[in-house]
Design a protein that fits this description.
It is a single chain. This protein has helices at 2-17, 25-32, 36-47, 51-69, 74-80, 86-97, 101-107, 131-134, 143-152, 162-174, 214-226, 247-253; strands spanning 136-137, 178-183, 186-194, 199-205, 231-237, 257-264, 267-275. By secondary structure, it is of the alpha+beta class. The strands form 2 sheets. Strands 1-2-3-4 form a 4-stranded antiparallel β-sheet. β3 and β4 form a beta hairpin. The radius of gyration is 20 Å and the shape is globular.
């Protein structure tokens, strides 16, 4: 497992050093001395998304940064992002950011689709029997590791304003509405629950731990220990949103059902609800 992580980290290093050059699976595989089929499987298993998806989202994020913070022509930015024409770049940018590059530039509000992945080389083998006792209220000392995980899983939270989010997080910690699961100095799972709105405001699980049922453990914590209401809700991507790397399916697998359509901070989302098993009485 550690070998897979090191190879994935080497691939990420190569990608980050060559974001504005030719990047495809075969080129990256040659750089890290693996077959492209092996690297594809290894990267997906370790990082939780395909190598091609990671490259595309990183390039579009850096393109968005250039749109907001420089005056470089859109065509030049498109070519740097690996697209052969401004139209091809505009089409994918609109699909992912929900606005064309020109409008995004005019609004001057940068947010990332994907930040650089920083993986844990030696993740702990967390046993399920330990989850309930290890998911604990977060403290102010947890803020750096919490924000570190937010940046790692930012693909699940469209249009996240980190400065605004930090203020909300501090309030959640003061009110004991923020839960965390730690592995040494790393947050491997985080959740903020709002009793007033009866909603999960934020749930993030480290990519290297996603197949261990940690998301479900946090939901059970909310259902049995936090919720005093007949149902809890969460908002996520709408069906068919190309920016979704699989979060909608995660909520569906956890038992959440579709509710109404919303627009949050200018981004189209959908509300999902989950009925609590105790009919609103705290257990």
């Amino acid at each position: 497992m550690s070998g897979n992580i090191r190879t994935t980290m080497a691939a990420i290093d190569y990608i980050e050093d060559h974001l504005h050059e030719r990047l495809d699976l075969e080129t990256i595989a040659q750089a890290v001395h693996y077959s492209k089929y092996h690297l594809h499987r290894m990267f997906t298993d370790t990082a939780g998304l395909t190598l091609g998806t990671y490259v595309q989202r990183r390039r579009l994020t850096e393109a968005a940064r250039l749109l907001v913070f420089t005056d470089r022509p859109i065509l030049e930015i498109a070519l740097c992002a690996g697209y052969e024409s401004q139209q091809a770049f505009t089409d994918i940018f609109r699909a992912m950011y929900k606005r064309p590059p020109k409008r995004f530039r005019e609004e001057r509000r940068f947010y990332p689709l994907q930040l650089r992945y920083v993986l844990k080389e030696d993740p702990a083998d967390l046993a399920k029997k330990d989850w309930q006792e290890k998911i604990v209220p977060a403290t102010k000392e947890d803020i750096p590791r919490w924000i570190g995980l937010v940046r790692l899983v930012i693909d699940g939270f469209p249009h996240l304003d980190e400065a605004r989010y930090l203020g909300q997080l501090q309030a959640c910690i003061r009110e004991e509405r923020a839960l965390i699961l730690r592995d040494a100095d790393t947050a491997v799972g985080i959740m903020a629950f709002d009793e007033q709105t009866e909603s999960i405001d934020f749930l993030g699980v480290h990519p290297q731990y996603r197949r261990r049922g940690i998301g479900r453990a946090f939901c059970e914590k909310a259902l049995y220990e936090l919720a005093r209401c007949p149902q809890i809700s969460v908002t996520t991507f709408r069906e068919g949103d190309r920016a979704d790397t699989g979060y909608r399916k995660i909520w569906e697998r956890l038992g959440f059902a579709e509710a109404g359509l919303l627009t949050e901070f200018g981004y189209p989302t959908q509300r999902f609800i989950l009925q609590t098993p105790h009919g609103g009485s705290k257990k």
